Amino acid sequence: MNQRPGTDLAPVHVWLNPVERDQRSAAHALLLELAGTLLDQPPVLRHDAAGGPHVDPLWVSLSHSRHLVAVAASLSGPVGIDLEDRYPRDITALAHRWFAPTELAWLAGQPEELEAFLHLWTAKEAVGKALGTGLRNAGLSREMPLPATAPASSGGLVGGIVASEPGLALVHLPVRADAVLAVVVPATATRVVLSEHHGAALRSTAVSRTSFPVVVRGN
């Protein structure tokens, strides 16, 4: 991945927007809106051969669930973002196929198995996006940092450095009760600015306890 000029002091920006339909188009529009606040010229969105979004000279990432879109942008290094819906499902086969023994052992010890599974799954997806490879090259087998506390639906997870990619760090941010959001940022990042949008308005959200200061913007 080509390194773009930037500064480690530049925050990573994460924007959320509730959307009920046409999530892909909504995510593109939200990403361009965010990029427009960080650049002096009108942003241009393009996609690489694998479908990954690019808005030069930023690092960007996007994701969507059934009811939310999320985008991230940074001037200081690669970012990746992944949203997953919370709903009951059988995750046993997927976990045993892809998760490392240490991850399976951690998963088995958690009081909320689905929540713990989504914590790991979104992390793996977000790292793949930050690397620009997606889940190719055994991305699902890549071990993730395990939180010191159990995942909870209210958020508040401690972030950590990705062992196989020490230039990247993982943080989970608190969003709506029906979704899990993982963000991967440069390990040198000092701030993550989280903004939840409702059209042109902003709504405050809770601040998660992470290894990175999270600034919440809202009315």
In short:
The model is unreliable at 1-8 and 204-210 (pLDDT under 50).
Low-confidence segments, given as residue ranges, are 1-8, 204-210
Count of alpha and pi helical runs = 4
Q: What is the CATH architecture assignment?
A: Alpha-Beta Complex
CATH topology: Ribosomal Protein L22, Chain A
Binned strand content: 25-35%
- Work out the helicity level: 10-25%
Secondary-structure-based class equals alpha+beta
Query: How many beta strands in the DSSP annotation?
Result: 12
> What is the terminal separation in angstroms?
37 Å
Radius of gyration: 16 Å
CATH class: Alpha Beta
Description:
- By secondary structure, the chain is α+β, with helices and mostly antiparallel strands.
- The protein has a single domain (12-217), classed as Ribosomal Protein L22, Chain A, CATH 3.90.470.20.
- Helices cover 23% and strands 29% of the residues.
- The protein contains four helices and twelve strands, in the order E-H-E-E-E-E-E-H-H-H-E-E-E-E-E-E.
- It has helices spanning 23-38, 92-98, 101-108, 113-131, and strands spanning 12-18, 46-47, 53-54, 59-64, 68-74, 80-85, 160-162, 165-173, 179-186, 192-198, 201-203, 214-217.
- Strands 1, 4, 5, 10, 11 and 12 form a six-stranded mixed β-sheet that branches.
- Strand 2 and strand 3 (53-54) form a beta hairpin.
- The longest helix is centred in the middle third of the chain and has 19 residues, at 113-131.
- It is globular.
- The chain starts with 11 loop residues before the first strand and ends with a strand.
